[in-house]
Amino acid sequence: MSYEAIRKWCLKFGDLYARCLRKKHQGYSEVVDVLLQTRRNTAAAKRFFQRVLKSSGISPRKIVTDKLRSYGAAQREMGGTWIHDTSQYSNNRAEQSHQPNRNRERGMKKFRSIKQAQPFLNVHATVNNLFNLGRHLTTAKNYQNFGQIRLLSGNW
User: Fold this and answer.
1) Where exactly are the structural domains of the chain?
2) Nearest by Cα to 54 from 36, 32, 37
3) What CA–CA distance (Å, rounded) separates 62 from 83?
4) What DSSP string runs through 86-139?
């Protein structure tokens, strides 16, 4: 199977598949959404927050971001009641959640445009959430069993 066939399949069926997975799998501390933008200003932050709030359907209690000031400005303009956490170590989980996307992008020799990358990253983030079992969501014994299964199958 060629890379081009996979790319065409992703463009044709990926969005539908990702929407079905998002409805069934609603976990915490995962990649909620990926939105690529050319600028990191207040308008871009508002677009991202509006997209996330619309897709989730609920208002969050807490949002963790980096210390970019446009996130706080966007929250004030939108009248958000959530807690905006920018403390030093709380952002680590958010930054690490994008690591599989970055690795995949590097393996594909970068994307040529945002228009090309956005549909792929939407699907990739959702599918990766499905296979990324959070340690805090299961017992120690089950987590060990899943790790052994992945090790034996070679999917690590």
Assistant:
1) 1-34+123-156, 35-97
2) 32
3) 5
4) --TTTTHHHHHHTHHHHHHHHHTT--S-HHHHHHHHHHHHHHHHHH---GGGS-
Amino acid at 67: K
30 SS3 class = coil
- Evaluate if residue 136 carries a pLDDT over 80: no
pLDDT band at 41 (very low <50, low <70, confident <90, very high): very high
| Percentage of residues of the chain with pLDDT beyond 70 | 81
Q: Identity (one letter) of the amino acid at 127?
A: V
Using DSSP, state whether 58 is helix, strand or coil. coil
Position of tokens 């709380």?
90
Predicted confidence (pLDDT) per residue in 43-84, tens digit: 999 998 898 888 777 778 888 888 889 999 999 999 888 898
CB within 8 Å of 29: residues ≥ 6 apart: 93, 97, 134, 136
E-strand ranges in 18-92 read: 62-64, 83-85
Query: In the predicted model, what is the mean pLDDT of the chain?
Result: 78
Inter-axis angle of helices 99-107 and 114-131, nearest 10: 130
